[in-house]
Amino acid sequence: MGHEQRRKDLDGKITGLERVLQILREEENVEVLLEGTLAYLQAEFDWRLIWIGLYDRQAHRLFGKGGMTPNGDLSFLKQRFALNPGDLLEQVVIQLAPVEVPDLRSSNRAGEWRKAAQTFNIQGTTLFPLRYKDRCYGVVLLGTDVSEYETESGEKMQLAIVFGALATALYQIEKDWQRQQVKHPDESLLALISQLRELRSLDQYLQAVVEQAHEFIEPTRTNIYWFEPERRYFWRRVSNRQVTPGLGGQGRPASGITVQDLGEFYQALVGEEIVWIGESHSSLKTELTGRLMQQIRARSLLAAPIVLEGELLGFLAVEASEPRIWQDNEKHYLRGVGQLVALTAPLSDMEERIE
């Protein structure tokens, strides 16, 4: 009878494991994944406290997604927990290995959890990382009211399987989200080419270019500056914002820039080079933080020359009012747009002849 009961218990554990693994394989919603995992932990084990926290890499902290407490109060479990050097939570996140704590109530490395353990009478505790390869997606804390409790090897294996599947699911969700966020320069450039057949004037086309580039890169401002070779002067021909002719007033970015103000920037444009300037990175040999950046009132700048048969016609500029690191696909995109504008420049001559 004892053997038969053990067999039934084993079958039940296998069934429960299969059920939760199916959820973790098929679901694409984070909340559903966590709810399924929590339900499994509650049904298959006798933990006094369960907490699941997801890792925020940028802020280096864990934000609680809930769990189970002895008195049913989940408010503490849904807080955000900063990770500090030497703390248990940070150790799990960095080392990506489980940590067993004999008595969480007296652990000096438990941080805010020490007081919570005293409130809930949590003693023997195990912390598991939600690990996919070398990346941490969160931490699961499992607590008991038994001092120096050690998780059995069979339980550890079950938990490793479930937490590994959960981490894999979280990785896949993150990967899918990142794929959706990837910008596709070719699609934006094709849209501009298709508009070329519909717009009759160069200024209309330049306006479409500015709007498309502004939507793709999402800077603070997007402008096209046109070159007057006789006066050695660039004037703002088109902007994503309504501007009035002449220089910008106080508080408004300037609408005209002289070659003298541009210096090395101008030489790069003549050499058909794309220029990027950030708070601490620049494509130029010397940081261009002088009159130009003051005039356009920007902290970051990405500019592509508009060159036709070796003649500099102007440049397309995207400007950010905050420090920004320009991505390679943004640089390639803006260069392509600048080349496309150069091909349409002869339209202005055609307009004058028609008129």
The number of domains is 2
Termini Cα gap: 102 Å
The average pLDDT score comes to 85
Going across the major beta sheet, what is the strand order?
Answer: 3-2-1-6-5-4
Shape: elongated
**What is the fold named in CATH at topology level of the largest domain?**
Beta-Lactamase
Total DSSP helices: 12
CATH class of the largest domain: Alpha Beta
**N-to-C order of helices and strands:** HHEEEHEHEEHHHEEEHHEHEEHH
| Rg for CA atoms | 30 Å
Helix content: 40-55%
Any idea what the CATH architecture of the largest domain is? 2-Layer Sandwich
**Which structural class do you get from the secondary structure elements?**
alpha+beta
Main sheet specs: 6 strands, antiparallel
Write out the CATH superfamily name of the largest domain: GAF domain
Number of strands: 12
Describe what you observe in this structure.
The chain has 355 residues and is of the alpha+beta class. It folds into two domains: 2-181, GAF domain (Beta-Lactamase); 187-354, GAF domain (Beta-Lactamase, 2-Layer Sandwich). It is built from twelve helices and twelve strands. It has helices at residues 2-26, 30-44, 88-95, 112-120, 153-181, 185-196, 202-217, 259-262, 264-270, 291-296, 328-344, 347-354, and strands spanning 49-56, 61-68, 80-82, 99-101, 125-132, 135-143, 221-228, 233-239, 256-258, 275-277, 300-308, 311-320. It has a six-stranded antiparallel beta sheet. Strands 9-8-7-12-11-10 form a six-stranded antiparallel beta sheet, with helices on both faces. The radius of gyration is 30 Å and the shape is elongated. It starts with a helix and ends with a helix. The model is unreliable at 243-253 (pLDDT under 50).
